[in-house]
Design goal:
By secondary structure, the chain is α+β, with helices and mostly antiparallel strands. It has a single domain, classed as Alpha-Beta Plaits. It is built from 2 helices and 6 strands. The strands form 2 sheets. The chain has a 4-stranded antiparallel beta sheet with strand order 2-3-1-6, with helices on one face. A two-stranded antiparallel sheet has the order 4-5. Helix 1 crosses helix 2. The relative contact order is 0.33.
Length: 103
């Protein structure tokens, strides 16, 4: 995996469905959709690991100009706080509270 300049970590509770939906929710917020033309405005990579019962640790690594880092972090959190995502198979993955746990 390539090196990214920034990192944001989250704990996501009450996950009902696949953790890959969390990464898709981040991409939707940053890029408009998980399938988009052209490069990302803010290149990013998301990793979700199941921890405990129905929770996931999420790590989002991204590149942004220093003047945009706070905006990107806010957008990532906003995308996750939506709490659900309908996938390409029309299945809805839902999750509960999201806690930022570090940078």
């Amino acid at each position: 995996m390539r090196e990214f300049a920034q990192e944001q970590r989250f704990l996501v509770h009450d996950l009902h469905g696949g953790p890959e939906a969390l990464g898709a929710a981040v991409t939707v917020e940053l890029c408009g959709h998980w399938e988009h033309d052209g490069p990302c405005r803010w290149p990013h990579h998301t990793t979700a690991t199941i921890v405990g019962d129905n929770s996931a640790e999420l790590v989002v690594r991204f590149d942004a100009d220093e003047s945009e880092v706070a905006e990107v972090r806010d957008r990532i959190l906003a995308g996750l706080r939506v709490g659900a995502l309908q996938g390409p198979d029309d299945h809805i993955t839902a999750w509960g509270p999201v806690e930022p746990t570090g940078q």
